[in-house]
Amino acid sequence: MSAVSSVLASRLSDASTTAFGITLDPELRSATKPEFGHYQTNLALRLGNQLSLPPREVAARLVAALKVDDLCETPAIAGPGFVNLTLRSDVLAAAVNDRTAFAPRGERVVVDYSQPNVAKQMHVGHLRSTVIGDAVCNVLRYVGYEVIRQNHVGDWGTQYGMMIEQLLEEDLDPETLDLQGLQALYERSRRHFDSDGDFADLARLRVVALQTGDPATRASWQRMVDVSLADFEQVYARLGSALTRADVVGESAYNDDLPVIVAELEQDGLLTESEGASCAFLPGFVGRDGEPLPVIVRKSDGGFGYSATDLAAIRHRVKTLHAKRIVYVVDHRQALHFDMIFTLAQAAGWLPPTTTAEHVSFGTVLGPDGKPFKTRAGGTVKLTTLLEEAVERADALLADRTGIDRAATAVAVGIGAIKYADLSSDRDNDYVFDLDRMVAMSGNTGPYLQYAHARLTRLLTKAGETSGLVTVLEHPVEQRLALLLTGFDDVVLQVAETLQPHRLCTYLYELAAVLSVFYEQCPVLRGENRSSRIALCAATRQVLQDGLGLLGIAAPDAM
Ligand code: ARG
């Protein structure tokens, strides 16, 4: 709730206490129609129910005890006993004028996101994780958390043993390989591994050499990591992602902790030997066949897998990073994995009740055929190609504009379009990657919101004054716009709680829609109350800019 609406809420519950000796949450909501005022509560209906009194009578007594003269017009009772509240316009104006920042919470959130894999191209799934993760980080920081980004890069495991052994056999200098070369090397080594037992044995020994820190083996591995990270960084730069190399804490970082993980689980009696592997069986986790599902902590060949690394990561994030919340932005297919990992980490005491772990899952990106997005040959679509295509489309869109920095604007619009499309529907849904729809200037799109912002910027430049205050809010549309503006922080808080960025998109889209009605009905530069309306426009521009910024989307001044 905005500051003013939370004050109203507590006044309502005070009134309920005074009149009936019962304290309930008024569940204050925005009014559903302008004629109902600004806010609405069904408190009297709930009280009436509890006290077996007619709700309208309860509403009358509630309103009599309600002290809101300093904030509202006279409260109204409507329908079966709703109480409708309308802010005094000077109060509403003041709420628009003074926006205050959230206070620091003194709490840390670790956000695990992006997580591409070494020696492989980033694909659209990694795009989603990166875009959603950036937005989630921005929102959490805005509401006062201290945010620690962790890019849990897939850089560990048996495949590196295979690849390094293949490299040696072909006498290839790892310095000469780019990401594509690495990917091809991976495929060759895989085939070799599957068809040649002697090679497979060597590859296994090579994994041991890697895990125990043999210098030459580590150097080859490091080269593969460096080549891949450099490539990822190019994608991040193009995307305007906040991720840097300092945020990379890959699977390999937990190597030394893995034996400790096993030892502690063993001590707690949580491990069972099963077909040579060390597994944890958790109550309630069974497969389709009714067989208990294991978390495989150590594989039968002694190697550690994805689960062991994730357990070590949780332990580190709680014990060393002191996280209150750990957030994993990973596609929905890993829901069961995280469910089991969190449960096991709780059982082992690594994840205490004072820290929450949340899987922020997301759906699949689909191609035009409605199937998971792939190239015609069935390979993964290169992310950079997609991003360049979006920028080209945006550039074409801007062809007839003059007086703008076309190249920079095309990047802002093209990349913004992709991000907004990804963020604007419920993240659990799949969506079709459709560039035409994404770059459209109308509808619930990134460019539409960017345009609303640019248009406001142009208007404010024309107006010439920027520092005035909102003083008059007479027109109903003016009031609606103002009221929406005061709800921004509330929406951002909701996103921080639910980690659902689409709620912010929906809000911004509504704001832009109300803004366009405002333009039609309330002339700004030549109308009455010029300076107040200019200030209202400036506040709207600021909220659009902040909102887009939280989504990781640029807001160019002209387009
Ligand atoms: N690298 C994995 C993948 O590409 C995702 C890692 C997710 N994060 C984690 N802590 N498990 O599928």
UniProtKB/TrEMBL annotation:
Query: Arginyl tRNA synthetase N-terminal domain: from which residue to which, for each copy?
Result: 2-87
Q: How does it assemble?
A: Monomer.
Name the keywords, alphabetized. Aminoacyl-tRNA synthetase, ATP-binding, Cytoplasm, Ligase, Nucleotide-binding, Protein biosynthesis
Extract the GO molecular function terms from the UniProt entry: ligase activity
Pfam families reported for this sequence: Arg_tRNA_synt_N (PF03485), DALR_1 (PF05746), tRNA-synt_1d (PF00750)
Domain DALR anticodon binding, by residue range, is 449-559
Q: Catalyzes what?
A: tRNA(Arg) + L-arginine + ATP = L-arginyl-tRNA(Arg) + AMP + diphosphate
- Motif ('HIGH' region) positions are 116-126
PROSITE patterns named in the record: AA_TRNA_LIGASE_I
What HAMAP family would the database entry show? Arg_tRNA_synth
Its recorded name reads Arginine--tRNA ligase
Where in or outside the cell it occurs: the entry states: Cytoplasm
Q: Which CDD domains match?
A: Anticodon_Ia_Arg, ArgRS_core
Classify the source by domain of life: Bacteria
Signal peptide range equals: none
Any idea of its EC number? Answer: 6.1.1.19
**Per the similarity annotation, which family is this?**
Belongs to the class-I aminoacyl-tRNA synthetase family.
